[in-house]
Write a structure and sequence with these properties.
- The structure is a single chain.
- This protein is of the alpha+beta class.
- It has one domain.
- It is built from 2 helices and 4 strands.
- It has a 4-stranded antiparallel β-sheet with strand order 1-2-3-4.
């Protein structure tokens, strides 16, 4: 696997109708709800920031044969980045077949 790695800046992928950072933030919220659904922890106690309050850490345009257009996005809530708190970083995978 190879392909360019972009640190910071603006996220992009082949599907221009959506914002990759906002999509990944929504995925992070869905994953949080899934993890806390059966736990003794109240889901509202660990609610994540709104999708607009997240930013891109890195984007990797993976060079996968047969999966051209694959991209990984690492995103983080802006406040967490300012506080250097990386425990809520979320990674999303995008592929436009």
């Amino acid at each position: 696997m190879d392909g360019p790695l972009h640190i910071g800046g603006y996220a992009f992928h082949e599907c221009t109708e959506t914002d990759p950072v906002a999509d990944a933030a929504r995925e992070a919220e869905q994953a949080r709800r899934h993890r806390t659904a059966g736990a003794h922890e109240f889901a509202d106690a660990v609610e994540l920031p709104a999708p607009g309050d997240w930013t891109l850490l890195a984007q990797w345009d993976i060079g996968l044969t047969g999966r051209e257009g694959s991209t990984l996005h690492w995103v983080i809530p802006r406040q967490d980045l300012a506080e250097r708190r990386f425990d809520r970083v979320h990674v999303s995978f995008f592929w436009n077949p």
